[in-house]
Amino acid sequence: MKKIFVDTDICLDLLSGRKPFNTVAEKLFSLADTRKIKIYVSSLSFSNIDYVLQSQYKVIDSRTILAKFKRLVNVLAVDDKIIELAISSDFKDFEDSIQHFTAVENSLKILLTRNLKDYEKSAIQIMNPETFLMGV
Hints:
Elements: E1 2-6, H1 8-16, H2 22-33, E2 37-42, H3 43-53, H4 59-70, E3 73-76, H5 80-87, H6 94-105, E4 110-112, E5 125-127, H7 129-134
Parallel strand pairs: 1-2, 1-4, 2-3, 4-5
Helix pairs in contact: 1-2, 1-3, 3-4, 5-6
C-alpha cells in the first residue's frame, strides 16, 4: 500500500469544501477510505485545520469534522528534532518546513501539496494531488 504525507492545504480543500480543489481532495481521501493508500498528516495540521474551520463552523461542528477526518488519516507527532530541523533549514515558510521534516523523519517518500514552490528544497518527492492521482 502506498504511503503518502499530505500537506494541510489539501486537507483544508476537502474539509472546507474549497472549490475547485475539493474535487481532487475528495478523490484522494476516498482512496484512503477504501484502504488503497495510507495518508499521513502532522499533528500541526490539526490545529491549523481547526483554526480555519472555526471561521466557517461552530466549535462543536469543527470538532465533529476533525473527528471524522481523523479516521481517514494517520497523525504523526511534531517533536523536538523536527522543530530543530525546521529552524535550521533553508525553507522560507516555517510551517512548510515542519511538514517536510515530519514526513522525512517518518520515512515517507512522497509529500502532496498544492504549494510546490514552497518545497523546492525538499529531500523527498513533492507532487500535487492531481499528478499523484494520475499514477494511482
